[in-house]
Task: structure prediction
Amino acid sequence: MMKLNTKKLISLSLLGLTSCVALAQKPVRPLYKNPALPVEERVQDLLSRMTTEEKVGQLLCPLGWEMYERQGEEVVPSPKFKQLIAERPIGMLWATYRADPWTKKTLANGLNPALAAKAGNALQRYMLEHTRLGIPIFLAEEAPHGHMAIGTTVFPTGIGMAASWSPELLKEAGEAIGKEMRLQGGHISYGPVLDLARDPRWSRVEETFGEDPVLTGVLGAAMVEGLGGGDLSQAYSTVATLKHFLAYAVPEGGQNGNQAMVGMRELHENFLPPFRKAIEAGALSVMTSYNSIDGIPCTANSYLLDQLLRNEWKFRGFTVSDLYSIEGIHENHAVASSLEDASLQAVTAGVDVDLGGDAYTHLIRAIREDRLQEAVVDTAVCRVLRMKFAMGLFEHPYTVPEVAAKEVRSREHIALARRLAQASITLLKNEGGLLPLSKSPTQRIAVIGPNADNCYNLLGDYTAPQAAGNVKTVWDGVRSKLPASQVEYVKGCAIRDTTAMEIEKAVAAARRSDVVIAVVGGSSARDFKTQYKETGAAIADKGILSDMESGEGFDRATLSLLGGQQTLLEAVKATGKPLVVVYVEGRPLDKNWAAEQADALLTAYYPGQEGGNAIADVLFGDYNPAGRLPVSVPRSVGQLPVYYNKKAPPCHDYVEMSATPLYAFGYGLSYTEFAYSELRIEKQNAHTFTVSFCVQNTGTRDGEEVVQLYLRDEYASVSQPLKQLKKFQRLFLKQGEKQTVSFILTAEDFKIVNREMRNEIEPGTFEVTIGKASDSIQLTGNIEIADRYLF
Result:
């Protein structure tokens, strides 16, 4: 047996002891920081380590635009941000990159895409390095028609995008918006807006996809798919947030935030289906609305937020209040006696995140004093943390400023903005084939009106300041078609202000021209003179006559043209020159005079940054218009609400006028003609039918048609719509080309909400109509349903 050296034994023992101590001192990585583990395991580990304050902090979303400081070409966290983090944990920020008169962020002091990426990186780094658990922050951004930030692409507003009737284009727009947001460090996109717009007096019609649940649902789902479809592992996927839950666009009196007078069956038949379809497409967040329904504020409605969203629809994302709508439970609706009571009502109803970030701080004391079970907050926190882990923020919290500078507002995205604007423009009248206009070297054009050369009036609300040259106006577009010597511009008047009228100058220009293009309508352009509520809604002030007559907070009592616009139109018409009237608008304004007196009439909605080029493309025939109205155009506010799918019985005429709209849902003209024929209906099974027919371009130009299939249940146990859109398709046909179109109607298309509030298919006859618009039916057939079916 060998004898061991005593000194060596002592040395080996000391070495082993040192190794054990070193091993004991080596920090063990928490499970939640291990990307190899399942998301749920990481969430539960992190939750177990969090204090009550840290948990509630994940549910707070304060305003973000004061949380950074520009220092030359670098961006650092602001003292306000550092103070906020020292005082309370937070889980996300809202509108960090937002720039507009409300935030007082301009081209001079705001963030271009590269600086935005640097700002996001700086805030993330601070959160990781200066908070106990190092939880990355979510950055939530407004993105209804483009990311609301400097240097991004501005697409047509929602009502314009809807006029394209093209889910393919909206998916592309969603992809572009998601990419631009993520490149700059944003994660949560607020939009699409799925409110059904049945009252054009309401100030936010421009943000919606119109009045119909099927069109809204299909387009909303397409945009959500473009935003990533809920797969947060994709590089450019966002947490798409649907707005506003629920029935927000039908406020009493058309006033933003007023109660919605809507019954439960109506909610299930019309207002809820678009949200469900978008959630099925992958939307991971839902925003509550400011209004109440049947006396219950939507931000405290447990039926909507818990029973319906969670239990019935199995929604797996998180909900968020609208800005300060939790405070509104107490301050506006007066159904809570204190802010703490309002917070308890919201969180127990199912609101996960507090947009504004103040109300939910009261939850901490409520938990400590046993007025709220901590498990309620735990559930909400887990919903937020799952999204952060799924997006990979713990492993990849930063973005690359150089890539943002290169790829935000790329040529491809600008081209897409033009294509979407072209597709949305809706031709309402073309007397004698005045359009398209000639590019003859002898043709002289007068371009007049307050929206002819005002870039911001083309963009709509929720739009950032624009660098010179970014936005193409109608004046720019016309000059791209004809030499400068052949075109002349006169503003004529403002949208609202009447102190600087140029009517005589406009008339003189009209007399020198061969054709007049008058660009009128409305505006949602904010300026630095307008005052704002703490929610960001503008305050209408008759003492300040900016152009703004639409956009959040600017509800209307009438729909007529404001300021001197009507006077301008009548004066130009009196010259006898052919008159083309183009409406740039955020809501369907009164078009009665133009419908009678103009030779050609179009609406371009708010067409976005490429709107001027797109309008000129249509006017001069480089693009054959195929936009279709996503909302009815009323003859008078006295008709309101006027929408195509009202329930039986049919309307009767008023003493003064017809009860029908001036222009119906789905209406729009083309420079060519289309004929429909050969309707066939084939039964596949008890509740599935194939409907096919032929469409032929019988005109003299290539063009697009939007075919529309409507259904009517002839007799049912509860009143049904006189007609309801079920299917549609936008298709391109060359001159003379004939194409067969097929739609499949399934059980989902035949169901009703019965007297017991259950979805049911009742036996009976269904009328199938195929048309160019809701009031232009070309083919009619019937389907017989023999078997009853309860869902």
Q: What stands out?
A: Confidence is low (pLDDT under 50) at residues 1-24. The first helix runs from residue 6 to 25. The domain at 674-790 is CATH 2.60.40.10 (Immunoglobulin-like). DSSP finds 23 helices and 30 strands in the chain.
